[in-house]
Design brief:
The complex is a heterodimer.
Chain A lengths: L1 H6 L2 H15 L2 H15 L4 E17 L6 E16 L4 E7 L3 H14 L4 H29 L13
Antiparallel strand pairs in A: 1-2, 2-3
Helix pairs in contact in A: 2-5, 3-4, 3-5
Chain B lengths: L2 H4 L6 H17 L5 E2 L11 H10 L6 E3 L6 H10 L12 E5 H4 L7 E3 L2 E5 L1 E5 L8 E4 L7 E3 L5 H8 L6 E6 L2 E5 L4 E3 L3
Parallel strand pairs in B: 2-3, 3-6, 6-9
Antiparallel strand pairs in B: 1-10, 4-5, 7-8, 7-11, 9-10
Classes of the chains: A alpha+beta, B alpha/beta.
Amino acid sequence: MSKNQTELTNEQQARQARLSVLATAPSNQLKALWHRWTDANGAPDYTLVRAPEIGTVMVRGRAGAVGAPFNLGEITVTRCSVQLANGAVGHGYVQGRDKDTSLAAALIDALALGDQASALDANIIGPLQAEVDGKATVRAEKAAATKVEFFTMVRGEG
Amino acid sequence: MSDAVYQGGFTNPPQEAAHAFRATMQVMARPGTIETIKGGQAPTPVSSAAATLLLTLCDPDTGLFLAPGHDSQAMRDWVNFHTNAPLVSAEEADFALGSWQALQPLSAYKVGVPAYPDRAATLIVEMGSLTASGSKLSGPGIKESGALNLPEVAAFQANRTLFPLGFDCFFTAGDQIAALPRSTRVEEAA
């Protein structure tokens, strides 16, 4: 993983981060933010390169994030590829079975290749990232609050 | 990547793939018949019939060999985007695409093993045109005799002697497709 990342350009890393947020974001929030964006900026002109289709991917995990990888289970994903009128091609992979969400994710990816990247990051990716981070924090806090410290009293001689 | 890489997939994959698969089965079951398949379009010089065949048959489990002449970066990207089939050498290929000359030597391709004769390669041979004339065909699926303008005869006669092992062939030209399974006996035109 680290080897791959050093080979990617800054643009590729930014795109990777953007797609990662889109893939894991809650579907209804992504669509709500996308609708707000199209209301303000107009819906982009596009053609479907690959119509939204549903499939599964195997999620792998490592015990404690260090052990040997094992198959955790399959999740449903929906993917879609679009091409904008200016030729930019965007790909959207999202969790779940919602085709509209994958289309929105693909359009966001395609638009972000143009000069609207920073506006999209501020209006869509940022809020989604904050949502995901917030959930992770709440979960971590809940877990931390119930943490039990085990320790052993040193048994003295007297 | 150029636009051609992303274009040329099925617009309605379930139906178009089913239609193409039906035609593919038909030509393989009745050697010498010529059918029309459409829906796919790959970067030049790949014919639309061959592109449709790749979309119908290839997936991440089938190794594809692109013979010289058909092995361009655009074609590799197209195969990767539309089918995700791994690109392999001729020795490991489940499918091979190219002109008859470019696909040589035929000894490189898998012919299966006696316990698993299905583990053989299927060659997709690009032709200038397809006509039901020329070499004489007989065998399973052919009522009396059939004919097809095969690129040569000796290679298919040698392949027939390996039966039940051997490779199978599809022939494509434009949007036309024909096939020659390993079971067919081929003779020179009288």
